[in-house]
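=== RUN LOG ===
request id: a7f3
mode: sequence -> structure
chains: 1
length: 180
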Amino acid sequence: MSDHPGLLDTRASNHPGLLDTRASDHPVWHADPVLLEIRGHHLPGRTWEVDGEPRGNVHVGIQIGRAPAQLVRGDADTATWTTEITVHTLDDGTLDFRGPAVQGRRGERFVYLTWGDVGTDGSFDMFRRAKLMLSDVAEAADARGGAPGSRVIASVHLTDDRGGPRCARLRPPALELSAD
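=== RESULT ===
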């Protein structure tokens, strides 16, 4: 019965079998913002060949949704991208991540650095991506005393062993993580 006559009581506790979606029963019980700063160095250059096709205006950016953002020329000395990641601690103690640059499914979340050729019309033809796993970022922050509101710095060597744009999962020694 509702506390207000004429209104239907929608509280799940009063209706066995209904899912209770009150905030106190939501699986996320704690969320902390972390600033992720990705610092790229040793970029591979602006020209590269993909499947026999020359690319003459190579750029790299952080992927927001399905689009590249904050594009940097492939021949720049350095590149820096910053994005906010919210780290959620679930009831079972596992972590989940949210934010504009966060990709992937729960338990496998990551941030993409996306490589592409920029056309004369400003179009972006993506041909490679590098994946920064957020579980690695969380481990680095935790191991180095990262706290809510902290900054995690991911230093990434952006040229692979063959001289091209680095792709696939980022791992040491091409990736160094620190927190401050």
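=== NOTES ===
Residues 27-179 form a domain with the Immunoglobulin-like fold (CATH 2.60.40).
The helical segments are 134-143.
=== END ===
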